[in-house]
Amino acid sequence: MSYDAIVIGAGVNSLVAAWRLAAAGLRVLVLERRETEGGSLVTEEIAPGFRVDTARHDIGWIPPVVARALAVRGVALVRHDPEIVAPLADGGALLLSPDVAQAAAAIQQHSPRDAERWPEFARLTARLAGFLESLYGAPPPRVPGAGFSDLVALGRLALRLRRLGKADMVELLRTVPMPVADLLDDWFETDALKGAVGAAGIKGILQGPRSGGTAFLLLHHLVGGRGVVVRGGVGALSTALAALAKEAGAELRTGVEVQGITLQGGRATGVATMAGEEIAARVVLSGADPRATLLGLVHPIHLDPEFVRAARHIRCRGAVAKVNLALDRLPVFRGVPDEALAGAITIAPTLAYLERAYDHAKHGRVSERPFLEVRIPSVLDASLAPQGKHVASIWVQYVPYQGKGEGGRGKGETGEREAGSGKRGGSAEVDVGEIVMRVLEDYAPGIGRLVLHRQVLTPNDLEARVGLTEGSLYHGELGLDQVLFMRPLGRWARYRTPIAGLYLCGAGSHPGGGTIGASGWLAARVVLSDEKRGRQPVEADR
After folding, report:
1. Distance separating alpha carbons of residues 95 and 332, to the nearest angstrom
2. Are 439 and 357 in contact (CB under 8 A)?
3. Are 237 and 75 in contact (CB under 8 A)?
4. Residue 503: which CATH number?
5. Domain CATH for 422
6. 3-state percent breakdown (helix, strand, coil) of the chain, nearest 5
7. Same domain assignment for residues 331 and 243
8. CA dist., res. 211 & res. 222, Å (int)
9. From 317's CA, which of 138, 251, 334, 536 has a CA 20 to 30 Å away?
10. How many other C-beta atoms are found inside a 10 Å radius of the C-beta of residue 431?
11. Would 99 be classed as within a structural domain?
C-alpha cells in the first residue's frame, strides 16, 4: 500500500505534522517504534498507582492553533501560582508569582532594590520573548540566498523589530548574545533571585550561566509565559494530538521501527522497517533529530561529504537526567507552604552554584551539587497517585552523556532498577539518584524516608528508551549557532533536506525544543506548499 506521506516517530511534532497533512486530504501513515505515542512527552506508571511524566515535565510554548485544538479535545492546561519556588539554605523561600506585583512583593523581603526593578525586568523580557514568538510562527527566512518571498519575510521581521521601539530593539540586540549571568548581574543583587531566574538560561544544555548566548535561552523559555502544566500529565497532551491525527484520517502504527529511508533517483520513496517491510510514499517526514535522520536513516553515500561533516557536528550534548519518585506522603520543604508545592521547586541558590555544577559536567563528571527542578504534579491532580500519596518529577542537570561503550548503567532504582548514571574513566560508580536525594535533604529534611520507589533515567537511558541522540531533550542544543535560520544547519533550516521528498519535522528544526508542535506544524506547511507547486526540491534553500 502506498501513502502520500509517511511520518517517522509519534512525538508531538510528528503528530501535529500528521494531523495537518491528513486534514489537508493527504493519506498519512505514522510509524512509532515504541508501543505508545508521545516521544519524550509521556506519562507512565512507575509503581502501581503512581503515574508521572517520565522524560519531560515541561511543555513550553504551544502555537495558538494547536492550543485551541487541544482545548476542544478537553486537555486542561493549568497555570500554577507561584510558578517558581526557590527554597533557601537558611530555611526561607523565594516564591515568584506570574503576577508581577505579587512577585515584587515577595522579592521585597529579600531586597527592596530588586523589588523595585522587577516590574521593568518582567516587562522587558516579556516584550523580547514576544518578539521571538512572532518569529516562531513561521518558517525562518533563507539567509543567505534569499529569494523574493524571503526578502518579504525579512522585511516583515524588520518591521516587527522596529515595532519594539528603539530602546527595546537595542536591548534585544544587546541581550541575545549575552551570558544570562551578565544579564541578571546588570539587573539584580539578590543571589537567590538570580539563581532561580537564571536557571532557565541553561536548562537542557551543556552550558553554564557564564556562557555566551544563554540569555537567549532564557527568552526562549519565556515565550508564551511560564508556569503551565497539563492536568493528567503531559501524556494527556500526546494522546489528544494522536486522536486529532487519527480523526483527520492519519493511520498510526506503534511497535514499528524504521530501519531506513528508501531512495530512488536521489528522492525519498518510502521507508523500510526492521521487520523487512517496505512502505512507499511520495514524501517522508522524520520526527527524529537531524543527526539520527540524516546519518542513521539515510546512507552517507547519498549525501555530499561536506554536508555529512556538518551534520556530524550538530551538538546534541545530553546534560539532563530524570529522577521520578513515588512518595508515601507530601514532603515538607522548609519555608514553603504546602499549597506552593505545585510550582517548579528550583534548586539553584546562586549563579555561582550553577557555574560550579557546569564545571563538573564539562569535564565529563556528574555534578555532585546539580541544578534540580522538582515538580509534584499530584498536588494539582490527585489522580496521579493513590489517595494521600504523591509523585515527584525531578529534572537533574548536569549529568553528561557518557558515550556508547563508556560504562553503562549505575544504580538508581528503589525496587526495580531501570537506569542509573555510569562510570567515568575507572572511577567508582556514581549513583545519580543518591546525589539527588542528598541535595533534596538539605531543603526537605526526611524526604528520603518517604520514597516508595525511585526511577532514574540518565542521558544514555533517554537515548536508548526514547531515541534521543546523546539524550538531548531538544534534539540539539539551542545555542545561537543552532537556532532560527541556522537550525539545524545554515542553508538547511526550512525543513527540507538534500534528499528530495525528505523533510525534518522534529524539534531539531525551527523553532526547536521547548515548544509543542510548532516544528511539526511549520514542516507540514512547507510540505503542503511543495505539493501544491509540484516542487521536487533537490538543492538546499540557497
Report:
1. 15
2. no
3. yes
4. 3.50.50.60
5. 3.30.519
6. 40, 20, 40
7. no
8. 19
9. 138
10. 17
11. no
**Which single residue is written with the C-alpha cell 508521545?**
38
Q: Are residues 270 and 298 in the same domain?
A: yes
Identify whether 95 is part of a domain: no
469 inside domain:
no
286 and 311 share one domain? yes
| pTM, full prediction | 0.92
Distance CA 6, CA 11 (A): 14
Would you say 376 and 329 are in contact if contact means Cβ atoms under 8 Å apart?
no
Burial of residue 96 (CB within 10 Å: 0-12, 13-18, 19+) is buried
Helix (H) or strand (E) run with residue 394 in it: strand 390-397
Q: Looking at this protein, which amino acid is placed at residue 265?
A: G
> 245-290 pLDDT, tens per residue?
999 999 999 999 999 999 999 999 999 999 999 999 999 999 999 9
Q: Are residues 383 and 494 in the same domain?
A: no
CB 180 within 8 A of CB 203: no
Q: What is the pLDDT of residues 352-391, one digit of tens each?
A: 999 999 999 999 999 999 999 999 999 999 999 999 999 9
Number of domains comprising the chain:
3
Does residue 511 have a cis peptide bond before it, meaning omega lies within 30 degrees of 0? yes
Do 33 and 120 lie in one domain? The reply is no
| Cβ neighbours, 10 Å, residue 266 | 12
Predicted confidence (pLDDT) per residue in 34-73, tens digit: 999 999 999 999 999 999 999 999 888 999 999 999 999 9
Three-state SS string across 228-255, please?
Answer: EEECCCHHHHHHHHHHHHHHHCCEEEEC
**Domain housing 17:** 2-44+64-76+233-315+474-533
Chain centroid to Cα 335, Å, comes to: 30
The x, y and z cell numbers of residue 244, run together, are 486529532
Residues 132 and 205 in one domain: yes
Side chain identity at 200, as an amino acid letter? A
- DSSP secondary structure of 82-111: SSEEEE-TTS-EEEE-SSHHHHHHHHHTT-
Mean pLDDT of 327-337: 95
Task: Confirm whether 19 is domain-assigned.
Answer: yes
- Higher pLDDT, residue 517 or 490: 517
Catalogue the long-range contacts made by 400-405 (C-beta closer than 8 Å, 24 or more residues apart).
400/206, 400/317, 400/318, 400/319, 400/361, 400/362, 400/364, 400/365, 400/366, 400/459, 401/317, 401/318, 401/319, 401/459, 401/460, 401/463, 401/470, 401/471, 402/458, 402/459, 402/460, 404/460
Together in a domain, 111 and 35: no
